[in-house]
Amino acid sequence: MTTVLSTRWRWRSSNVIPGFGITFGFTLFYLSLVVLIPLACLGWRAASLGGADLASLGSDPRVLSALATSFWTAFAAAAVNVVFGLIVAWVMVRYRFPGRRLLDAAVDLPFALPTAVAGIALTAIYAPNGWIGQFLQPYGLRIAYTPLGIVIALVFIGLPFVVRTVQPVMEELNRDVEEAAATLGASRLQTLFRVVLPSLAPALLTGFALSLGRGVGEYGSVIFIAGNIPYVSEIAPLLIVMRLEEYNYAAATAIGSIMLSLSFLVLLLINLIQAWSRRRFGHVL
Amino acid sequence: MKVTRRNLLLTVPLLAVSLQFAGPGAAHAQQTLINVSYDPTRELYRDFNEAFSRHWQAEGHEPASIKVTHGGSGSQARSVIDGLEADVVTLALEADINAIAEKTGKIRPDWRGTLPDNNAPYTSTIVFLVRKGNPKELKDWGDLTRDGIEVITPNPKTSGGARWNFLAAWAWAEKQYGGDEAKVRGYVTDLFKHVPVLDSGARGATTTFVQRGIGDVLLAWENEAFLAIEELGPDAFDIVVPSVSVKAEPPVALVDQVVDAKGTRDLATAYLTYLYSDEGQTIAARHYYRPSNPKAVSDKSLLEKFPDLDLATIEAFGGWAKVQPEYFGDGGIFDQIYKPGN
């Protein structure tokens, strides 16, 4: 990798798969068909709204509040997932115990489950009369129908993203390095923070970004658990649905594009941090 | 493909079969009717379709295949606008059918009036569903804004049914405060401060109230309230009928362009007309919808469930064309009551 980067940048380099022209052409075509054209349509529809309307929509306190809710809950959920997803991945990779494969398969369930089902199930559990909710109710802690419920739903949805990105990298980690650190007199914590985590950082950041991106746009599961009270637990995708209900496609796409640009900025920022961490810690694999 | 003996052997019977389908069968191809409906009519149309199929065949027609799709009224209307080939629409709100007519021209603009009773073969109203024995003693709209009362209603922005809830509360307040608009707004704003959860649809709100045990009162369509009691047993909930409510008219209409293209106009017209027949009206009443022509209901005991109350019509509000943007549009009255500081 580094050798390729250090030599002069070339248009094409010899590769095991021949036919650069065909594959590159296909990539462009496929990406356009699947990603770029729909996004361009979104932008085009939103542009039909005009600058003034777009500005008033972008400064509407209700829209801003919904955007803030969507982003902070997705951030919180992604942060939780990074910490606990790391532990889950660590246990799966480093230990052998009965039922490990079953547990490993269970991590993917949030991918497979229809999100609405997840939302209804979580609401049933965390509602004041639910399995978990009934124990929290006496302490005045409400999870379902508050922003906290949104975070719970997004933690559920986003967990596999972190585990599945970190797991393979962790499997490739060289134990020799940890042993070397130990023989050189590093404490366990030092080994963890200065040897293990830096090499996992890029994968963790990717997992964080995926979990965040998924969480910001999540509708199906959140809608059941959020309570959907304006200015409190109303998410931006719900505002889009409301605009659609009013047959106001332009405003719906405009909110959609605002969300998209914000997500893009956040993901770009994460990529930059990732690039920086690669340069700082080197590529360990 | 090389023509081998094996391929030929396969082809001949296939050809024969396809010829049979394309030949004399095509002239009498089974007609399909698609009814695009909203959520709580699932049980109603399951029964009605059976009855209609019997009636249609008894009249000497070929059996027809009838399909119904259900969903939120607004999103169902959007599917039709986006190209779902519905022969008839039976939705919750006149505004949704108007939207189809306006955006696509598939339905004639003067559709309302092509059938009796403003195209509403059955109506309903908004009632309170409360916990058994009515422990909080909620009798009328004024009780709902007492301290500590939690009210469950879906979001009027996303649910057609919830718009009727809103208007029912508004109608009561208008009568109560003699039309003093500021006071009416004050009451409705206060009412929505007592709403802890705004579900996106009517069924979702029912689940929140019934299964999750949230809230003291559910504002519900009369037929949904009866259905909840029927499904969950009469020992869990009571229905409270307020002094004032609205006359909710879920309208039905023919999708002209589709039936003409498919050649199903006769079938679709007969389908909608049969809703007004004795049997259609009786089925509606059995599913807790108020029949528009109670005289047609054969089993009069079905009508005893429907108490008399003061029902405001949508005309009293100025019609849906005015109500929709003014009350529920972007920045409308409903949006304003959630403005911070209100």
From TrEMBL, chain A:
<feature type="transmembrane region" description="Helical">
    <location>
        <begin position="143"/>
        <end position="163"/>
    </location>
</feature>
<feature type="transmembrane region" description="Helical">
    <location>
        <begin position="63"/>
        <end position="91"/>
    </location>
</feature>
<keyword id="KW-1133">Transmembrane helix</keyword>
<feature type="transmembrane region" description="Helical">
    <location>
        <begin position="20"/>
        <end position="42"/>
    </location>
</feature>
<dbReference type="InterPro" id="IPR011865">
    <property type="entry name" value="CysT_permease"/>
</dbReference>
<keyword id="KW-0472">Membrane</keyword>
<feature type="transmembrane region" description="Helical">
    <location>
        <begin position="247"/>
        <end position="270"/>
    </location>
</feature>
<comment type="similarity">
    <text>Belongs to the binding-protein-dependent transport system permease family. CysTW subfamily.</text>
</comment>
<dbReference type="GO" id="GO:0005886">
    <property type="term" value="C:plasma membrane"/>
</dbReference>
<feature type="transmembrane region" description="Helical">
    <location>
        <begin position="219"/>
        <end position="241"/>
    </location>
</feature>
<dbReference type="InterPro" id="IPR005667">
    <property type="entry name" value="Sulph_transpt2"/>
</dbReference>
<protein>
    <recommendedName>
        <fullName>Sulfate transport system permease protein CysT</fullName>
    </recommendedName>
</protein>
<keyword id="KW-0812">Transmembrane</keyword>
<comment type="subunit">
    <text>The complex is composed of two ATP-binding proteins (CysA), two transmembrane proteins (CysT and CysW) and a solute-binding protein (CysP).</text>
</comment>
<dbReference type="Pfam" id="PF00528">
    <property type="entry name" value="BPD_transp_1"/>
</dbReference>
<comment type="function">
    <text>Part of the ABC transporter complex CysAWTP (TC 3.A.1.6.1) involved in sulfate/thiosulfate import. Probably responsible for the translocation of the substrate across the membrane.</text>
</comment>
<dbReference type="InterPro" id="IPR000515">
    <property type="entry name" value="MetI-like"/>
</dbReference>
<feature type="domain" description="ABC transmembrane type-1">
    <location>
        <begin position="67"/>
        <end position="270"/>
    </location>
</feature>
<feature type="transmembrane region" description="Helical">
    <location>
        <begin position="111"/>
        <end position="131"/>
    </location>
</feature>
<keyword id="KW-0813">Transport</keyword>
<dbReference type="InterPro" id="IPR035906">
    <property type="entry name" value="MetI-like_sf"/>
</dbReference>
<comment type="function">
    <text>Part of the ABC transporter complex (TC 3.A.1.6.1) involved in sulfate/thiosulfate import.</text>
</comment>
Automatic annotation (TrEMBL), chain B:
<protein>
    <submittedName>
        <fullName>Sulfate transport system substrate-binding protein</fullName>
    </submittedName>
</protein>
<dbReference type="InterPro" id="IPR034408">
    <property type="entry name" value="Sulphate/thiosulphate_BS"/>
</dbReference>
<keyword id="KW-0813">Transport</keyword>
<dbReference type="GO" id="GO:1902358">
    <property type="term" value="P:sulfate transmembrane transport"/>
</dbReference>
<dbReference type="InterPro" id="IPR005669">
    <property type="entry name" value="Thiosulph/SO4-bd"/>
</dbReference>
<keyword id="KW-0574">Periplasm</keyword>
<dbReference type="GO" id="GO:1901681">
    <property type="term" value="F:sulfur compound binding"/>
</dbReference>
<keyword id="KW-0732">Signal</keyword>
<dbReference type="GO" id="GO:0042597">
    <property type="term" value="C:periplasmic space"/>
</dbReference>
<dbReference type="Pfam" id="PF13531">
    <property type="entry name" value="SBP_bac_11"/>
</dbReference>
<comment type="similarity">
    <text>Belongs to the prokaryotic sulfate-binding protein family.</text>
</comment>
<feature type="signal peptide">
    <location>
        <begin position="1"/>
        <end position="29"/>
    </location>
</feature>
<dbReference type="InterPro" id="IPR006311">
    <property type="entry name" value="TAT_signal"/>
</dbReference>
<dbReference type="GO" id="GO:0140104">
    <property type="term" value="F:molecular carrier activity"/>
</dbReference>
